[in-house]
Write a structure and sequence with these properties.
Blueprint lengths: L9 H11 L7 H19 L5 H22 L6 E4 L1 H4 L9 E6 L4 H11 L10 E2 L12 E2 L1 H10 L3 H6 L4 E4 L3 H15 L5 H11 L1
Parallel strand pairs: 2-3, 2-4
Antiparallel strand pairs: 1-2, 1-5
Length: 207
């Protein structure tokens, strides 16, 4: 859909991606779709048809649809994806990374997904997926079971990690509701810490 006078939501993008789906392991058609839709959004921006909040929401919806479509194409039913940061807040801009957490017991689908997204192509690049907000960061496993998240956030997570959970948003997968319950419990518990405001001030000073 190349029209400039309307916003396309996640379901709309998924429908269009399903319509043009090809047997292409490199996902070239997804990259072509991404580039075409970013251009459409950019034109809407340039001619003043969209304000900044809607602009970020449109780009977030496009990114989410591409991520969901590719994950589904890889044939998984057990990988849960949680959006974080600006992606979680529907606030990504041009060229932004997609902060995510992966929940599950098998890392193969997530690894295939990251590899497919990073694949160089003449059709251009898809947004980089960044999973470094997971427990232990880059040192930790890429995909973490639900129970391990629960244990980590209840015992060892730092204040900034609990604060980051306030922007967690479910994208897809069987454990989205269970993860969000863990996230909400964790940041509500974090909000009851003694000297909370002093800790936040110290965190901001370090940043």
């Amino acid at each position: 859909d190349g029209k400039l006078d309307g916003e396309i939501d996640v379901d709309g993008h998924l429908h269009q991606l399903d319509e043009i789906q090809r047997k292409d392991e490199g996902f070239e058609y997804v990259r072509a779709y991404w580039q075409a839709q970013v251009l459409r959004i950019l034109l809407r921006d340039v001619v003043g048809l969209v304000k900044l909040p809607e602009l970020c929401r449109e780009q977030s919806a496009l990114a989410e649809a591409c991520l969901v479509h590719m994950t589904q194409r890889l044939g998984t039913d057990d990988l849960t994806i949680i959006a974080m940061g600006k992606f979680g807040g529907h606030e990504i801009g041009y060229g932004a990374d997609l902060d995510v957490l992966f929940v599950g017991n098998d890392s193969r689908t997530a690894q295939k997904l990251l590899s497919a997204i990073a694949q160089p192509s003449a059709e251009g690049s898809l947004p980089r997926v960044d999973a470094r907000l997971r427990p232990e960061g880059e040192k930790g496993p890429l995909v973490i079971p639900l129970e391990a998240y629960q244990q980590y956030y209840a015992s060892r997570a730092q204040l900034w990690e609990l604060q980051a959970l306030t922007r967690a948003r479910p994208v897809m997968g069987p454990s989205t509701n269970a993860f969000m319950e863990i996230a909400q419990k964790a940041w509500r518990s974090g909000a009851q810490q003694p000297n909370l405001f002093e800790k936040i001030d110290d965190m901001l000073l370090r940043i």
